[in-house]
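Thanks for the sequence, V.! I ran DNA-binding NarL/FixJ family response regulator right away. Repeating your input here for the record:
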Amino acid sequence: MTPIRVTLVDDQALFRAGIRMLVSSQPDLQFVGEAGDGAEGIELARRERPDVVLMDIRMPVMDGIESTAGILAEAEAHPDWNPRIVVLTTFDLDEAAARAIRAGASGFLLKDTEPEFLLAAIRTVHGGTSVVAASATRDLWEHLGTHRQPPPPVFDELTAREREIFLLAARGLSNAEIASREFLSEATVKTHISRVLAKLGLRDRVQVVVFAYEHGLV
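Predicted structure:
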């Protein structure tokens, strides 16, 4: 099995050393580089094309939000590269963490999370599922829904079936759970999800949840 390639962007050298040792200890993970600020993080990602980026929020030169957006912009030019970004913060929830999710991060964790959970999070986001610090999950979605706006006209382009699939995915159901509920095959659900993402211009299922909360759909 090809190992999951991981990079780390954080301005604290001691923290980077600890994460490097932790990730390198796992046979299914490969630590491929680290950077001390967001700008260096973009260059590192461009060079190494990691599968998962662990990203600090607050850094000099360029913060983690801007770096997240920059890495994902780079990835758009390479269809064969689909990096997942997990932002790391010392706060349960703040505006910066919510902005990082909006920018395309696949979730966020607290820096004092248990090592086993961090490792599990890397594997989880690589598999396409979001990861959010348990203590902040409810607050995050409520925060995203604070300034709700009507759905854009593009939402009306979804078929009735696609809208059903969208709402179930926005509630956090997996493809298997949606397939069971709607009496469909998982392959069919996956196809519908792909079409929903394409029509709404969303990157992944995390963005589906963000879209739904920001537009009052859940």
